[in-house]
Amino acid sequence: MNDTNVSNIVLERLSREWEALTPEAQKAARYVLENPRDVGVSSVREIAEAAKVKPNTFVRMARQVGFEGYDDFREPFREAIRRGTVSFPDRARWLQDIAASGALGQLFADQVGSAIRNIEETFAGIDEAAMEVAAKAIWASRKVFVLGVGVNNSNARNFTYLASTGMRDFNAIPKPGSTAADDLAWADERDVVIAITCHPYRTEVVEAVNVAREQGIKVIGISDSPASPIIRGSEHGFVVAADTPQFFPSSVSTIALLETLLSFVIAVASPKIVERVEKFHKRRHQLGIYQEEPE
């Protein structure tokens, strides 16, 4: 059940096995076929009541079509919710169901809900035209510096690693043993710096962005507020939602934004980027970096 349309596969199986089901199981199956979104967010008792059958009817129906029980049957529908292929109200009901499931259920629901909400709020506030302009600036630049410290150092390095499979002169800064300002010493208006910091804003990132502006380097700021010192005055600024019920800041929307920005860079780039990516991965196969699949 690893297909992205796992819930659809279950629905097809129900239709295919319809004639083999008992009349009561058919009532349960009909409800599932007509209301598939209810499956992932309802307990067996709730869905049985809605279908006007006994709870064990759903259990027997699930077993008749090849599942161990209702929980096993329901899992593909819950997975569809996790992947965001159903509407937000259904996800909200799913989170409420999790919150009521046990001692750590509320924590799990809070974390998942926060991650989903952060991504939705982030992309709801982004203009794809602005993303395209930033992507074109990156592709047209001589060098790109991706600046992040703390947790955002890992985010900057991950973005740089992915970009480097098809593009040259991407640099994650600060480099080991250096400072971000020093790493920008020879950069100028031909270059771009992508700077990342959220509240409380890291001094070294803010100072490096100020240096970049003085040198004429184009700045793409990623932060959690339009009032952030690295957003104000930047040629391209993107605000990410970073709320979390825990003590550490959330990087979910920052990572999603960076991945989207990179996809835009690839989209606006010349066809040679495809050749570079193919060459990069072909080289990895030749060097034995990838585990080859058995024939």
From TrEMBL:
InterPro entries: Homeodomain-like_sf, HTH_RpiR, RpiR-like, RpiR-like_SIS, SIS_dom, SIS_dom_sf, WH-like_DNA-bd_sf. Residues 134-279 form the SIS domain. GO terms for biological process: carbohydrate derivative metabolic process. Residues 8-84 form the HTH rpiR-type domain. GO terms for molecular function: carbohydrate derivative binding; DNA binding; DNA-binding transcription factor activity. Keywords: DNA-binding, Transcription, Transcription regulation. This is Putative HTH-type transcriptional regulator YbbH. It comes from Roseovarius albus. The gene is ybbH_2.
